[in-house]
Design a protein that fits this description.
alpha/beta; 4-stranded antiparallel β-sheet; binds adenosine-5'-diphosphate; binds magnesium ion
Length: 233
């Protein structure tokens, strides 16, 4: 049994009289500790899949297992607990609090999560030991994304979900952020899912899940994922 298993998951959004099938009988698995890329064009349903996996949205039908938990059967309260304790999120535009320093942003994680790691240590780990007391506006885009990765990692989550984490970065900085995500996936042994529309990123991952029109187009296993240095962006 895989760590993560989607089985026939459907998500229908209704707005007014319109209905959109953002996920259509989605079935796939991810093993524990794996680095996985979810790849597809804009509008394919990638964010929908990630939000369902992260407990930020509820499936219309189907089942989602994460470890022993059947996410699709959790109550609202259990889902809150799951998001709070089990899942770390990284977003395209970082979502940092502008009036808090890098350190204070990471410390927020400790307030929601009793098993949190030491924020100073985690910031050092992402290469920001010298920038902890800077505010987000004083940091580059790549550095801000490092803070947001540190904030997610501080929770020591079983699952790290990243929605277009390099989408707002130039290619060089984007590759540094990917390198960091690869490194932490190994060091913390968390299961990491990275959403992207950039096919160049795919060879990095052990598992590549291609999404198209709300459906899974293919699942590819790379027996030998490449290093960030070997990627042509
Ligand atoms: N909250 C929502 N309400 C209505 N439609 C939505 C909502 N979220 C996503 N959609 C639609 O679902 C489809 C998939 O969206 P999304 O998962 O965001 O794709 P991607 O992340 O691959 O760009 C799109 O057609 C989008 O417009
Ligand atoms: Mg998206």
């Amino acid at each position: 049994m895989s760590y993560i298993a989607f089985h026939d998951v459907t998500k229908e959004y209704r707005t007014g009289g319109e209905s959109v099938l953002a996920a259509n009988k989605v079935t796939f698995e991810i093993e524990k500790g794996e680095l996985c890329v979810v790849l597809g064009p804009s509008g394919a349903g990638k964010t929908t899949i990630l939000n369902l996996l992260g407990g930020m949205d509820k499936a219309t039908s189907g089942s989602i297992m994460v470890g022993e938990k059947e996410i699709t059967k959790l109550s609202g309260r259990e889902l809150t607990e799951y998001r709070r304790l089990d899942v770390g999120f990284v977003f395209q535009f970082y979502n940092l609090m502008p009036n808090l320093t890098a350190l204070e942003n990471v410390e927020l994680a400790r307030q929601v999560c009793p098993n949190a790691l030491d924020p100073v240590e985690v910031l050092k780990q992402v290469g920001l030991g010298e920038r902890m007391n800077n505010f987000p506006a004083q940091l580059s885009g790549g550095e801000q994304q490092r803070v947001s990765i540190a904030r997610a990692l501080c929770k020591n989550p079983a699952l790290l979900l990243c929605d277009e984490p390099t989408g707002a970065l130039d290619s060089k900085t984007g590759l540094q952020v990917l390198s960091l995500l690869k490194e932490v996936s190994e060091k913390y042994q968390s299961t990491v899912a990275i959403i992207t529309h950039n096919g160049a990123i795919a060879p990095l991952a052990k598992r590549v899940i291609r999404v198209k029109n709300g459906s899974i187009e293919s699942v590819q296993i790379n027996d030998h994922p490449v290093d960030v240095d070997d990627i042509a962006w």
